[in-house]
Amino acid sequence: MRHTATTLAAVALLALGSTVAVAQSSGYVGPSSAPKAAAQNAYSGPSSVPLMTVKQLLDDGRDDQPARLQGRIVSHDGGERYTFEDATGRITAEIDNEDFPSSQTVNAETRVELLGEFDKGLRKSEFEVDRVTVLP
């Protein structure tokens, strides 16, 4: 009887884990893709936040500086970490599930604009994304 209770508990945990995985929808489907939740509609008009390149941001950016980057998300590095690339270089981008566009698929070939904030650290720097917009 003890074996049956243990088996039932294990099956219940597996079922719960499967339900959580299915509840997430996909936003980025490029290399090493992971399920993502759908994003809410967001403002898509003009912005006073400066458009920068990865090189400009890494060379001259200040901690907590708002910026926009245009390029491609070339890989998913686990969790909320992605590699973003433009013609000048690469930077780690932290992107929450809800920051991907809800009705568009993003993969390694999709041109996107990232709106967010530069997180400049002593050992590493990354871009904390508030919104991902697919470019035409």
Short précis:
This protein is an alpha/beta fold.
Explain what the structure shows:
- The protein is built from two helices and six strands, in the order H-E-H-E-E-E-E-E.
- Mean pLDDT is 80; it is low at 6-25 and 35-40.
- By secondary structure, the protein is α/β, with parallel strands linked by helices.
- It has a five-stranded mixed barrel.
- The relative contact order is 0.20.
- It is globular, with a radius of gyration of 18 Å.
- Residues 1-23 form the signal peptide.
- Residues 27-47 are annotated as: Disordered.
- It holds the Pfam family BOF.
- This is Bacterial OB-fold domain-containing protein.
